[in-house]
Amino acid sequence: MSAVPTTAASAANTGNAMPSSIAHAAGAQEACQSINDDTPSVDWDSEIQLVSSLAKLQELERQIHSLRQLLPDGLLEPLLPISNPNQLPTNTPVAGPPTGLRNEMQEAARSQLAMVDQFQSMWHGPELKPVWAHVESRIKESNGQYLQPSGVWEKDYDVILDELTKSEKTTQEEQQCAEEESERAKLETSDDQYQDMAKAFAQRDIPGVRVIIGNVANSFLVVLARAGIIVIVQGIKEPSMSGVSDWQVSSKRASGQPPTQLELDVLGCLRSRPRKWDLTFLLEMILSYADIKKTPCVRCNRLVNDAAQLPTARRAQSTQAPSTEARSFTFDALHANCA
């Protein structure tokens, strides 16, 4: 872990980097009322949790400073051309008729009230609830004394959080790649075994799905009758590697007939999949489109979104039986905007 995030975690535990305005706010009655026995459990030994919480508190203080400008500046901004014309650029039009001025002031009031609502929602929201509970417990542990030598934020925790998140994502991706390489090395599949996999899928007799094994090695057709799509699967080998390194997909259409948008969306998702060497993964993913015109999005529970699109995106979910090292996959259907 880098030195900067570690410093951030240390500051979170000591309170050195927390301004007095936030600490006092955390101890206020309004915050205390939102803390009860069902506060979600949080791992406060996690550095990313500490930095994330500090970033939320930092954002709250930014909003507090913005709200201080609400009265009178924010609400009276439409009157500026009348009250302080010298502060405006040359050729700025003077305020219009009273009805127009009234509309501008109403809009300004709505805008400022929206800022207040946003602040209240964040303050009382579920993400900050455990943070307030933790701050309150730390204040009690120190008999009401919370060390704040500077009274200002010493670091930008949004930046530190971004660094930590990227580092964690990179570590997870490296770990996933290592696991996949290990899994692939154990597979050592021959052409005949690939063909047996395709035959096993064909024998599942899924309604509206037909798997056709071609004469060319490592070549299959998957017909999705209900979706109106025929997927061509072709295995590509690399001389330096054993087995198929990439199962490529394309579609088969009648001569001169352009692909449909649904077909393009499905192929795009299939091509962007991970585990490109894994035939079972690919076939399961293709089969998840068998009833696409009746399968709603798992996130919004709608079949068609506002753009009249079906849920063509897929999110893989893996399971692994305790008795075997092999993993099986299922696929959640999602709209592109819900993914």
From TrEMBL:
UniProt key word Transcription regulation: yes
Family (UniProt): Belongs to the Mediator complex subunit 27 family.
Species in which this protein is naturally found: Penicillium capsulatum
InterPro entries from the UniProt entry: Mediator_Med27 (IPR021627)
Main location: nucleus
Protein name (Swiss-Prot/TrEMBL): Uncharacterized protein
Keyword terms of this UniProt record: Nucleus, Transcription, Transcription regulation
Xref: Pfam families: Med27
GO CC field: mediator complex
Residues covered by region (Disordered): 168-191
Subcellular location: Nucleus
